Amino acid sequence: MFRSDTARAGFKGACSESMSLALSTLIYEWRRYMAAVVALAFSGLLVLAFAGMFMGMGKSFTATIDRSGADVMILAPGATQLFGGPSGVPRRLIPTIYQHPEVEVVDYIDLSGGRFESMDQAALRAPGATPPQGQRSESVMVTSIVTQPGNPTIPVDYSEALVEALRQPDAVVLDETALTRLGVQLGDEAIYNGHRVRVVGVTRGYANFMQPGMVMSRDTLRRYGEAYNGSRVGPLMVRLRDPARAEVVVAQLNAGANGQYRAWTRAELSAANEASMFEEGIIVVMLGFSVFLGGLIGIAITWQTLRGAILANIKEFASLRALGVGMGSLRRIIVELSFSVGIVGIGASFLLTWLISLLAGMFGLPMAFPLPMCLAVSALLLIIALLSGFLSLGMLKQSQPADLLR
Question: What does pTM read for this prediction?
């Protein structure tokens, strides 16, 4: 076949900018590559949804800490996370922490638990009716807060009206996910460990799927005889005069700890809690299986889609070879095309994940997506796309210029 040197040079120049050619192919023939994009998107969604659900559950357990007004947390010296190890410290350390000139308020977490029983509200409000017995019984975990203004035990997303409501005797607050499980609504009365309580507020984002959580003031907890008075308390929650100096204060506190405690910034403790989620055996196994399954599905569908697209355009590739474009340039086009498919698939995956997280939020299911996890999933999808592209390179052998004469 006669080939013009000028035409050959022109096509080689075009192929030297093969990223533009690959993008143009993806844009104008997007229907051919949609299956590959969808496969990558759902592969990423599978991994992100599993990981996000577990991370969200972990974040819900520590939401009271993550959203507290504390700038510094004081845990036992051997603690590596909030739960799962020693976290309490001797009560006598509280005056020691107060000695630091930048410390404003020091308090501690006080937990309890017991039986929560719903009651027939209609029978309860009937004139002259005797107090009805509990109907639905469920075990709850109780977290107490000190309702004095500025206390670090108060979560930052609690409104002043909600804190004021908790100052009332026998007032409790529940997360929205616990209402149906406990059989109560806002304003209802119930029984907790034999005491009449009233639901004065409903929160969002404090779900506990193992055991419903309930919040009350420490004064109420103390009146019920459940406030802890032992020699070890904690973790300690410290509010600083200048929150921006939290890292400096933590370093100074740890320098003078003498092995009695370890100070953390709230951000450091939150990161440690997130990392501890991946130390749980069952979570690692489930995430590993989802990565394997998502990768297997992604490679299989993306590879077959790219092969089909290359085969559909085989005459165009044969024409390029007839004009003098080398196989190396054609391979580079395929690899860069698969890279572009991977980038689009990553974007689609995050879009689907965002929509799923919105849907989950409507039902009170928390999901969390730390940046390292998102970067790892992005790298996985890109590797799947590139591997599929490399596996499809063999199709270029069918682009024989002689076939154009048939």
Answer: 0.70
